[in-house]
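Chain X:
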Amino acid sequence: MLQIEGLRKTFNAGTADEKRAIDDLDLHLASGDFVTVIGSNGAGKSTLLNLIAGSYTTDQGEVHIDGERVTGFSECRRAAYLGRIFQDPLMGTAASMTIEENLAMAELRGKPRGLTWGVTASRRAAYRQRLSRMGLGLESRLKQPVSLLSGGQRQSLTLLMATLHLPKVLLLDEHTAALDPKTARTVMALTEQIITDNHLTALMVTHNMRQAIHYGNRMIMLHEGRIQFDVSGQEKAELTVQEVVARFGGTLNDEALLG
């Protein structure tokens, strides 16, 4: 579903601040893979997601999604293939619009627009049903502005918006890092449920090593723009934080990650 070959990205090339963020990276994700990505600050995790999404242009390499070469596609054109959730809960929603308006905007993304109502009775009923499954009580607040929601509620709504039309690949960029531990667990449980129920292919960057080990069927570790560790299946299921630290503690200089 996602094929990356020989990907390279250097910032400030030819200057004293030159930084090779992604260094000749290869990565293949099969359909239905849920891959977690760990690594210290500056390892290239978010840069990798930005290159997949088209937010950054590649210096070298190829990106294919579901067999189609998207390397030269703009960010807005790649959005037809991708769903993405950021660390900041405020980035994924329009605060002044209502819950149902945000959902309608997400549902109509990439479709032809006309002078008709975006929120119809049938759409409202469908939104209410989808929200009720989340167990957050949002189905009774469809006409409330999103600005009244908590961070966890907004991130949960963003997750639903990103998957209303099932994306080829779901990109999760530390989407629980700004939440308190209890809310983060709720959002992660919802994330796992949506990915599993819809057989989505997902790539999740996280600073939480326990989270990276617990969720998904595969885990990779980035260091200086390269994949240092790639584990899946039963080997991943039996992995412990202590084992990862023992093997790679020298490259994990991030206190948040080690914590």
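Chain Y:
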Amino acid sequence: MKRVFSLPLAAFVILLSSTSCFGLLDTDSPGGSKNYVDLGLSVKWATCNLGATSPEKAGNYYAWGETSPKSEFSWDSYKWTKKIKSTYGDEILVRSKYNSASNLGTVDNKTVLDPEDDAAHVKLGGKWRMPTKAEFQELIDKCEWTLTTRSGVSGFEVKSKSNGKSIFLPFTGYYGPGKTLNNKDQGNLWVSEMDGNSNFSCYFKKGTPGSWWGISREYGLAIRPVCD
């Protein structure tokens, strides 16, 4: 006699929601069809933000160069800072990595995230990683950005001019300083590289599809992974 096993409806719904984006990732073949959209560009773009269960979800928020999400963002809690005694005897925070200015801390002149500091690569493995500025610029230049709403969430449909395929980028805002989610009417996604000691994000809102915005690295932003 064959046995038929069934899941309770609630458990079935949870299972579906937890696997809708990255739960089915095959790290031996990064970017299975359930996980990326091939827009005909130099990289393939994930269907969802890192940590999200559907395209309209914001996912998790990360400080630049950190690989664990958190609820409060500040220089005090930022991974790549340390406290030292100043010449006046008081404690000050300086940068311990990704720094090119001697007055700000240890100089290493690193401007691109090491793989072990790239949240997308650490969480997803394989060839998944955070996008470069050039890859975001390609997404801006070679796709049509249309303001739309998906499941009640505002954002942009980003549609390839070459093959007509698209991804949805929701408005996510950002955290920092503190625990407050700011500017919910815009999207901010981390870029994997810096310009000197300056960090920036791919920025988009109503009237501004795909642009650049300087933002402090200890702030919490969403991440949209790519894979080669």
